[in-house]
Each structure stands twice: as structure tokens, then as C-alpha cells.
Amino acid sequence: MINKYPVIVVPFLKVAGMALFPFILVSDKRYINDEVLIRHETIHLKQELELLIIPFYVLYALSYLVNLLVYRKHNKAYEQIFFELEAYAHEHNAGYLPNRKPWAWRKYIITKRLHL
Ligand SMILES: [Zn+2]
């Protein structure tokens, strides 16, 4: 898999991976070659670029807060963030990134829900 974004190991990171444009942060060096995790975070980097970075984080936080009001549970609120829905839906699909259409996350705002 070709990943053009630099991966940085941040041992104190509370999650396995995080996209912080233009970097992918991982909490352990074993994740550097974790295709699924790197693909998931790369999808987020594409989303960030499409929204010129800062608005991505604002929308991400807003989506989380709305979900928290709806679901009243952190895990569910996180899983249903529409940026996460796109990333989780395609993180196992090696063919996804080369063929991904820009702004693909938009269709997850209302229409698509993971049933977790
Ligand atoms: Zn994610």
C-alpha cells in the first residue's frame, strides 16, 4: 500500500491512530504497517484536505456533540460521526482510496448509518 503521508509514533497517544494533517499519528510502532489503520487515517486526511483542515475539526466536533445529544453515549456518538462512518465503512477496502470521490463523506451525514 502506498501511503504518502508521514507516520509519527506518539507513545502517549490515547488512541491507536489519529489524523493530524499532514501527519498520521500512531501510538505504537507496530501500527506503522497496519494497513487498515493507515487507510482509516488516510481517509480522514482526505476529508481534512477537502475542508481546508480547521473546518474539518469544527464539523467533527459538532457532529460528535449532536450525536451525544441523540445517543447519550460517548462510544455511539463517536462511531456515528459522519467522517468516521466513511472511514470505518471503507478501511478494509484496498481499492477505496484510489477511486474515492471528493467529498464522499457527505452522503454519511444523513443517509448511511453503521449498525453497531
Ligand atoms: Zn476515525
Concise overview:
This protein is mainly alpha-helical and 116 residues long. It has helices at residues 35-50, 54-71, 74-79, 82-90, 96-99, and strands at 7-9, 17-20, 23-26.
What does this structure look like?
By secondary structure, this protein is mostly helical. It has a domain at 35-108. It contains 5 helices and 3 strands. It has a 3-stranded mixed beta sheet with strand order 1-3-2, covered by helices on one side. A hairpin with a 2-residue loop joins strand 2 (17-20) and strand 3. The protein is globular. Zinc ion binds at residues 40, 44, 84, 87.
Q: Whole-Å distance between the termini?
A: 28 Å
- Given as residue ranges, the uncertain stretches (5+ residues, pLDDT < 50) are none
User: Based on helices, strands and strand pairing, what is the structural class?
Assistant: mainly alpha
Q: In total, how many beta strands?
A: 3
The geometry reads as: globular
Beta-strand percentage?
A: 5-15%
Oligomer: single chain
Strand/helix succession: EEEHHHHH
Count of separate DSSP helical elements = 5
Percentage of residues assigned to helices: 40-55%
Order of neighbouring strands in the sheet with most strands: 1-3-2
Small-molecule binders: zinc ion
Largest beta-sheet characterization: 3 strands, mixed
What's the mean pLDDT score? 93
Task: Using the CA coordinates, give the radius of gyration.
Answer: 14 Å
Outline the secondary-structure elements.
Layout: E1 7-9, E2 17-20, E3 23-26, H1 35-50, H2 54-71, H3 74-79, H4 82-90, H5 96-99
Helix pairs in contact: 1-2, 1-4
The structure holds zinc ion.
